[in-house]
Amino acid sequence: MQQNILVIGGSGFIGSRLVNALSLGNHFVTVPTRRRQRARHLVQLPLVDVVETDIHDDAKLARLVAGHDAVVNLVGILQGRRGQPYGPDFARAHVELPRRIAAACAQHGVRRVVHMSALGADVNGPSMYLRSKGAGEAALRAQDGIDLTVFRPSVVFGPEDNFLNTFARLQRVFPVVPLAGAKTRFAPVYVGDVVTAFFNSLVGPQARDTIGQTYELCGPGTYTLAELVRLSGQWARVGGGCGRAILALPDALGRLQARLMELAPGTPVMSRDNLDSMQVDSVCSGALPGFVPALGVPHPESLEAMAPTYLDPKFQESEYGGMRATAGR
Ligand SMILES: NC(=O)c1ccc[n+]([C@@H]2O[C@H](COP(=O)([O-])OP(=O)(O)OC[C@H]3O[C@@H](n4cnc5c(N)ncnc54)[C@H](OP(=O)(O)O)[C@@H]3O)[C@@H](O)[C@H]2O)c1
Question: Is the CB–ligand 1 distance for residue 12 below 6 Å?
Answer without folding.
Answer: yes
